[in-house]
Design brief:
The protein has about 260 residues and is mainly alpha-helical. The chain has helices at about 1-25, 35-50, 50-85, 90-100, 110-115, 120-145, 145-155, 160-200, 205-210, 215-245, 250-255.
């Protein structure tokens, strides 16, 4: 079954690449705006051979990883504290619902005013966008704790931190991993967006330079790189999620199937 799915995926990718090659060569779109796949592949090969490309890739991954780590740590800690401390969940609900829908890109002017084109501007946007993905999932996870299990733990004399470790955390962990997976994708989007708009070092800034200099094949090649990064991050996040939740019914059921 997996082999058949892989074959279908490869066939779909081949058809997509062939379509990208044929459409501009048949004159359906101008090659100046959408070059054939072969030209994009050539540009990608040139980019891979350029040291500046790897430096930009490293800058993007640095901003993504650091921002994601901060967001995950803060989201888990804040979510647990808000859920455990009595009445804090109700007291913060309005603030969370007000701040969470604010688009991170709306903070770009603030980031530029505070940090200019430094890495901290990218981190501000990445952390803000990713933090809510984790926090909300932690809140949902804690809310899903079985009251009977909680009362049983209390009756056995488990203290607050013991209950967090043995009752709350195992229940919330699947939600946390979902939040991390979502946050990883959002963090990459915001990292590239910040570089593209603000001009911070990274793939986004390199895409902007290629666009302004009319290097269209290079621009598309860099866009392909960002897409591949997103794919690798998603696959990696799912792999980590399966290993972290190997004991959980959802993962065991998936493996059994």
């Amino acid at each position: 079954m997996r082999g058949a799915n892989a074959a279908l995926g490869a066939a779909g990718l081949a058809a997509f690449l062939a379509l990208g090659e044929a459409v501009p060569r048949l004159g359906l779109v101008k090659e100046a705006y959408f070059p054939p796949t072969s030209r994009i592949a050539d540009a990608l090969g040139q980019e891979v051979g350029d040291h500046a490309f790897w430096s930009a890739l490293g800058d993007t991954l640095s901003g993504w990883a650091l921002g994601l780590a901060i967001a995950v740590g803060a989201g888990v800690v804040v979510g647990l504290v808000v859920s455990i401390v009595p009445y804090l969940r109700e007291a913060t609900a309005s603030a969370i619902e007000f701040l969470r829908p604010i688009p991170s890109v709306a903070l770009i002017p603030l980031a530029v005013l505070l940090y200019g084109t430094e890495l901290r501007s990218v981190l501000l946007l990445v952390v803000y966008a990713s933090f809510w993905q984790v926090l909300v999932q932690v809140l949902y996870g804690v809310q899903d704790v079985d009251p009977v299990a909680e009362e049983t733990a209390r009756s056995y004399g488990l203290g607050p931190w013991a209950r967090v470790r043995h009752v709350l955390w195992p229940t919330a962990l699947p939600y946390v991993m979902t939040g991390v997976r979502l946050a990883a994708a959002v963090a990459l989007i915001l990292a590239v967006t910040a570089e593209l708009v603000i001009g911070a070092p990274g793939l986004g800034a390199r895409i902007a330079v290629a666009q302004s200099s009319q290097a269209v094949p290079d621009m598309y090649a860099l866009v392909v790189v960002t897409g591949l990064l997103g794919l690798l991050i998603n696959v990696g996040a799912r792999t980590v999620e399966r290993r972290a939740l190997a004991w959980h019914q959802s993962v065991r059921g998936e493996v059994a199937v």
